[in-house]
Amino acid sequence: MNWLRRWKPPVGLAPAEASELALLRNVTAGIHGIEAIFTRDGRLQWISPSIERLTARAPAEYLCADDLLSLMVHSADLSYCRRVIEEIVSTQVGRDFELRLQHQDGRINWVAGHWRLMFDDAGVVSGVRLSAEDIQVRKETEYTLLETVAELRRAQALREHYLTRSNDERHRLSALLNVIRLGILFIDRDHRVLYYNKAMLDMWGFPPGENLIGMRDVVLHSRVAPLLADPASYFAHVEQVMTTTAVSEPYEIVFRDERVVTDLSAEVEGDEGGQGIGRVWIYEDITERKRVAGQLIALAERDPLTNLFNRRRFHEELERLLADGERRDSGVGLLTFDLDGFKPINDRYGHQAGDEVLIGLAEGVRRIIRRNELFFRLGGDEFAVLVPDATPEALSELAARVVEGVGALQFHFSGQAASVTASIGAACYPLHAVDGESLMAAADAAMYRAKAAGRNCWTLAER
């Protein structure tokens, strides 16, 4: 019989005190974990009835024991438990640790113990309190997982052993695949890595000695996801490829460090009429190829001095914006201008000074125009700005800002100040023109009127 069930309220207690004690008895009887109170020298004062569920010993046995810890704690944890209790009392700092309780029949039960000091009203240490919860199920689960991991490792070790004993042909093939610049990854039918080469490790940022054999593809994906600029798009591509047996089309993978790698994949067929044995992935780093292609494109469409779009790109963008404007029934604005006072600077201070003026003007106007407006150097000191979704009012406002911005630019050559101004012509499609050629003509005519009006101003095309 549980010792608390035999408890009777002391004779002479007030009804309120007796009620409180009865309530306390009910609370302690319902404790699922373990609660215990020790004196500061380690003697047990009280322990919850729940100890009997974990050790098959009644609380009275522990209260009467000469050496409580020896009776309750497994021998492997006993010395550590004693030492920790002494440290708690001496340092006055609570501790949490796991220990094994000794069952009466020899079995053990793991608990997570929380040891805390208790103080009297004067703030003096009066004892130590133990609160513990049963973690036996969790420990058994951990042991099961450890056994599973150990079995997986043994299986992986066995697989590596057989790979090591491959024949000479496999070694020669492996050596060949390790020196080529294409990354190769083979995933078996169980979605585990069966083979990879050095180039694949390099492209995906793995250390040279990384062992991926046996790793599941989902784990591999979680490892590489932080390297990708758009992981979601890449994994959607992989899922789509996995649904077909045909050779996939090359797909560009963009990394956060701006590298670009293409992949293509194909299912590897097994014996005739059998299932495929896995899938091979081929990776190629095309970063340098893309960089060179970008440079060639930049050389073809950008001005080398100012890095502005050139005349060729101007005509391409003009046709594109006009087609888009016609389709969406929206306007396209064009500003054309050249520099007043540029030739005297070039003649007096030399071409290097002229180049400095052009570069400074390009930087100044870039700060004025919006992100969707395109700025071009058409040649010499001739410039143009294309404005999508333009209205005559907005185009006029932009022209005024450019005139003001160019006039505010200051240059110094040979200790002397120099400046330029801009004469700007503005035209808007379809108000002033119906195609690209007539739009350019309207803007140029407006620019010459601005020059005739005294320069350093802008003029809107006439209808």
Ends apart, CA distance between termini? 109 Å
Mean pLDDT: 86
Q: Count of helices?
A: 16
Strands in their spatial order, largest beta sheet = 2-1-5-4-3
Describe the structure.
This protein is an alpha+beta fold. The chain has helices spanning 15-29, 51-55, 59-64, 68-72, 75-91, 136-164, 168-179, 198-203, 217-224, 231-242, 287-301, 311-328, 342-349, 351-366, 392-408, 436-452, and strands spanning 34-39, 44-47, 95-102, 108-119, 125-134, 183-188, 193-196, 251-254, 260-268, 278-285, 332-340, 374-379, 382-388, 411-413, 416-418, 421-429, 458-460. The protein has a five-stranded antiparallel beta sheet with strand order 2-1-5-4-3, with helices on both faces. The chain is elongated. Mean pLDDT is 86; it is low at 1-9.
